[in-house]
Amino acid sequence: MSTSILKIFKLGFPWQTKDPFLFCVYHLDFFPKGNSELGPNASLEGRNLGNDFTIKDGWRMYHGQTIPGFPVHPHCGFETVTMVNKGFCDHSDSLGAAGRFGEGDVQWMTAGSGVQHSEMFPLLNTDKENTMELFQIWLNLPKTGKFADPHFKMIWHEDIPIIEKEDAAIKIVTGDFENEKGPDPAPDSWAFDKTNEVAIWNIKITSNGTLTLPKASQPLNRTLYFYEGDSALIDNQEVFPDHGIELNSESEVSIHVKGKSAKFLLLQGRPIDEPVAKYGPFVMNTDDEIQKVMQTYRLTQFGGWPWPYPDNVHPSEKGRFAKYPDGTVVEK
């Protein structure tokens, strides 16, 4: 095995990640045509509604009962980075923030001291199928940021740099690629400090094309996820889709795609290197802190739920938009 490759592993659900990331989920659903309620115009018979994670007919309902997605649930002590490459996501939260984003947009939410939100997948097309491709990445917060004020940030795809190389396109959600810088992350994020070299890159390499990943300036956790294509030579080691590759961040790495074009996600960052205690949607440093957070949630509901439904969606005619906690609305 190449000295630039530390480990190759099979991808599960969710994807295995390394500090400072907690995990990454990849959703690809070929939803049918939508109905008048933004749900599937198809029978839900035979699905374990409320907990439907088994792909049936090419799609899943997740925790949704009538609309696919994730009705209201709490988070505390970390951040979610949600990248929607295809389809749309409707966000609503206990801060009063809301949005509809997709077509390459990214939402960055710092849960910090606690927030409730819902993430629903409205099936807006009633005359054709509704394909959805989405990554949700959980990025940890250090002890000093666990109780930061919650923060909602929308990063529109028009503002995300895409580096065009001879054989590849690199979308920089955060971090630097060569001399190009991605958008600023949320202000309390581990990624906000550039010395942590946090990177989230979505990479497409053309058929039989080659891309060289630049080396970082320090030892980092760097993982490449191969999720679409035929095969690739990574420093002459053949790798197939549905595999993750842990890389030596202090080495340049050559990726040569064999066969059809291929897609990769890269997650990189300096580890926080602190204890991690997790219980469902809560991430702290100790079990005692988890118990205290759960007690806080029972007492405060992290501000309550200001929306009419737990699986809140926005009107079908609504385009891409963001409503911020201060009431500011941005329409795209």
Automatic annotation (TrEMBL):
<dbReference type="InterPro" id="IPR003829">
    <property type="entry name" value="Pirin_N_dom"/>
</dbReference>
<dbReference type="InterPro" id="IPR014710">
    <property type="entry name" value="RmlC-like_jellyroll"/>
</dbReference>
<feature type="domain" description="Pirin C-terminal">
    <location>
        <begin position="201"/>
        <end position="303"/>
    </location>
</feature>
<protein>
    <submittedName>
        <fullName>Pirin family protein</fullName>
    </submittedName>
</protein>
<dbReference type="InterPro" id="IPR011051">
    <property type="entry name" value="RmlC_Cupin_sf"/>
</dbReference>
<dbReference type="InterPro" id="IPR012093">
    <property type="entry name" value="Pirin"/>
</dbReference>
<comment type="similarity">
    <text>Belongs to the pirin family.</text>
</comment>
<feature type="domain" description="Pirin N-terminal">
    <location>
        <begin position="61"/>
        <end position="139"/>
    </location>
</feature>
<dbReference type="Pfam" id="PF05726">
    <property type="entry name" value="Pirin_C"/>
</dbReference>
<dbReference type="Pfam" id="PF02678">
    <property type="entry name" value="Pirin"/>
</dbReference>
<dbReference type="InterPro" id="IPR008778">
    <property type="entry name" value="Pirin_C_dom"/>
</dbReference>
